[in-house]
UniProtKB/TrEMBL annotation:
Keywords: Protein kinase inhibitor. GO terms for molecular function: protein kinase inhibitor activity. The keyword Protease does not apply. Pfam families: Sda. This is Sporulation histidine kinase inhibitor Sda. It comes from Brevibacillus composti. The keyword Nucleus does not apply. It comes from the Bacteria. InterPro entries: Sda, Sda_sf.
Length: 46
């Protein structure tokens, strides 16, 4: 995860949700997003 830029992490997260990938994978992405203090609500509205 540390090799992903914030932008790429967000894109991967949204794509994983859209494709309804494994919930554990989505949770892993979400945990990393929270660890980096990225707020998805701000990203979506930006």
């Amino acid at each position: 995860m540390k090799y992903l830029t914030d932008q790429l992490l967000i894109e991967v997260y949204h794509r994983a949700v859209d494709l309804q990938l494994d919930p554990d994978f989505i949770e892993l992405l979400n945990t990393e997003i929270e660890r980096r203090n990225i707020r998805l609500a701000q990203v979506v509205s930006a």
